[in-house]
């Protein structure tokens, strides 16, 4: 393919290594990300003023890209606040307590419900729906908020999103790039998704139970008033609001029905991704307003604003340390061209994609090496945090490898797809797994650390499985 790597590519790669090393050592990465943005800007513009301006501009770019997620989390937190204060939340979750009686049942129950929901309209809206309803039950029976976040994250952004069997956005992208029917890629991905999912979720659960017994478990709670904080504290600090039992019961029935109606609308109107999230967010705002007016009556107008402010404070407090790392990883894809124009060599498809192509060009081709290489390429392209930006690249490289070894096109394509989405779709890159972390009120960095070993073991097991399937 003849991709020429420039100094910009190598500097980006060096900073990725630094960032991953700091994450493993449980250190903050903000400063190194800002340094990386400055260095890339200096190479792209060759001026100090251009690179300094690039820091701010990259923050703006990342904030714009993340704003939808920030908004949905903030609104759900605001809505959860009034539901918990009024006791409506208690009535909503009461029927579920009979099923989620132990931490183990809560972990697997939340995970499976999250997986099924995510299959139908993707994980980000599913996190908001599942987290707001089931998190208080899980916390009450002894599952840590971080454990609930792991379950939602691994089953939703991992298993469901990497297979994407209902909406089929991911397999269509990879299949088109590899010149294969979508059905063949989906069939080839089934055993890979099963192996990856089983190894990852079982390992994560076992490590959580082991660390709790050994006293080395860290809850990773962040300061703020997210649903997890309120559920754990019983909302003791909140001033109780009187609402009749009949009204509470009516709202406890109506609110889940409204969200169920959202799900039905997503099917009927074919709403996906951002459109589905917007529908859930708008519904949450209306629920917040109506519930606040019924609960506070004459003070309802002012209290609505107060709850929204609390939600936004929580949302931006969680996203604050994440924006710099998001800004850096976005430079690996579309942000670099948007900010610096044609600073990359001719024929470049973005820093991350160029690195993936260069890796594919410098490895010997056989089934085993092809499987390892597609997994690594998928993981590398996932480092920009979207999970989807590099899967077309994985499909095209899988086609090239399959032509060289005369077999395994669908398996290699599915392998690259699953690896890219598990890494970048929201289980390892801290800013990509924000929805699950924020709705549970835990640190996204701590969630990423908890996921790291299970996901790496899952990737290894899936790669070995793929070697036998090629």
TrEMBL record:
<feature type="transmembrane region" description="Helical">
    <location>
        <begin position="251"/>
        <end position="270"/>
    </location>
</feature>
<keyword id="KW-1133">Transmembrane helix</keyword>
<feature type="transmembrane region" description="Helical">
    <location>
        <begin position="127"/>
        <end position="143"/>
    </location>
</feature>
<feature type="transmembrane region" description="Helical">
    <location>
        <begin position="104"/>
        <end position="121"/>
    </location>
</feature>
<feature type="transmembrane region" description="Helical">
    <location>
        <begin position="428"/>
        <end position="445"/>
    </location>
</feature>
<feature type="transmembrane region" description="Helical">
    <location>
        <begin position="452"/>
        <end position="469"/>
    </location>
</feature>
<protein>
    <recommendedName>
        <fullName>Transporter</fullName>
    </recommendedName>
</protein>
<feature type="transmembrane region" description="Helical">
    <location>
        <begin position="368"/>
        <end position="388"/>
    </location>
</feature>
<feature type="transmembrane region" description="Helical">
    <location>
        <begin position="150"/>
        <end position="168"/>
    </location>
</feature>
<feature type="transmembrane region" description="Helical">
    <location>
        <begin position="276"/>
        <end position="295"/>
    </location>
</feature>
<feature type="transmembrane region" description="Helical">
    <location>
        <begin position="31"/>
        <end position="60"/>
    </location>
</feature>
<feature type="transmembrane region" description="Helical">
    <location>
        <begin position="66"/>
        <end position="84"/>
    </location>
</feature>
<keyword id="KW-0472">Membrane</keyword>
<feature type="transmembrane region" description="Helical">
    <location>
        <begin position="400"/>
        <end position="422"/>
    </location>
</feature>
<feature type="transmembrane region" description="Helical">
    <location>
        <begin position="188"/>
        <end position="208"/>
    </location>
</feature>
<feature type="transmembrane region" description="Helical">
    <location>
        <begin position="307"/>
        <end position="331"/>
    </location>
</feature>
<feature type="transmembrane region" description="Helical">
    <location>
        <begin position="6"/>
        <end position="24"/>
    </location>
</feature>
<keyword id="KW-0812">Transmembrane</keyword>
């Amino acid at each position: 393919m003849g991709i020429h790597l420039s100094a910009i590519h190598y500097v980006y790669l060096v900073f990725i290594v630094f960032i991953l090393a700091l994450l493993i050592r449980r250190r903050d990465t903000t400063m190194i990300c800002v340094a990386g943005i400055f260095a890339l800007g200096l190479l792209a513009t060759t001026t100090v003023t251009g690179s300094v301006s690039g820091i701010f501009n990259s923050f703006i770019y990342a904030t714009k890209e993340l704003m939808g997620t920030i908004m949905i989390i903030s609104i759900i937190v605001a809505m959860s606040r009034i539901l918990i204060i009024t006791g409506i939340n208690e009535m909503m979750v009461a029927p579920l307590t009979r099923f989620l009686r132990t931490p183990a049942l809560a972990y697997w129950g939340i995970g499976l419900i999250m997986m099924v929901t995510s299959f139908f309209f993707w994980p980000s809206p599913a996190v908001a729906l599942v987290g707001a309803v089931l998190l208080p039950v899980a916390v009450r029976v002894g599952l840590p908020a971080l454990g609930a976040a792991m379950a939602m994250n691994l089953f939703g952004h991992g298993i469901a999103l990497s297979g994407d069997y209902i909406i089929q956005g991911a397999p269509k992208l990879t299949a088109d790039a590899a010149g294969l029917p979508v059905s063949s890629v989906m069939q080839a991905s089934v055993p890979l998704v099963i192996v990856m999912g089983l190894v990852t979720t079982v390992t994560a659960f076992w490590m959580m139970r082991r660390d709790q017994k050994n006293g080395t478990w860290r809850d990773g709670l962040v300061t703020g008033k997210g649903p997890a904080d309120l559920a754990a504290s019983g909302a003791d600090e909140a001033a109780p609001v009187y609402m009749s039992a009949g009204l509470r019961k009516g709202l406890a029935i109506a609110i889940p029905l409204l969200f169920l109606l959202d799900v039905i609308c997503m099917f009927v109107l074919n709403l996906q991704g951002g459109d589905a999230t917007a529908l859930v967010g708008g519904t949450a705002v209306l629920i917040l307003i109506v519930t606040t007016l019924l609960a506070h009556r004459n003070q309802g107008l002012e209290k609505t604003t107060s709850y929204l402010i609390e939600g936004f404070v929580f949302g931006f407090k969680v996203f604050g340390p994440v924006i710099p790392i998001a800004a850096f990883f976005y430079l690996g894809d579309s942000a670099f061209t948007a900010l610096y124009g044609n600073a990359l060599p001719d024929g470049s498809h973005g820093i991350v994609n160029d690195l993936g192509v260069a890796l594919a060009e410098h490895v010997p081709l056989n089934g085993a090496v092809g499987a390892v290489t597609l997994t690594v390429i998928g993981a590398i392209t996932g480092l920009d945090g979207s999970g989807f930006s590099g899967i077309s690249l994985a499909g095209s490289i899988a086609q090239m490898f399959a032509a060289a070894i005369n077999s395994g096109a669908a398996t290699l394509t599915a392998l690259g797809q699953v690896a890219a989405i598990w890494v970048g779709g929201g289980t390892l890159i801290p800013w990509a797994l924000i929805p699950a972390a924020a709705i549970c009120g835990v640190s996204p960095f701590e969630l990423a650390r908890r996921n790291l070993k299970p996901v790496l073991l899952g990737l290894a097991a899936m790669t070995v499985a793929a070697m036998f399937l090629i």
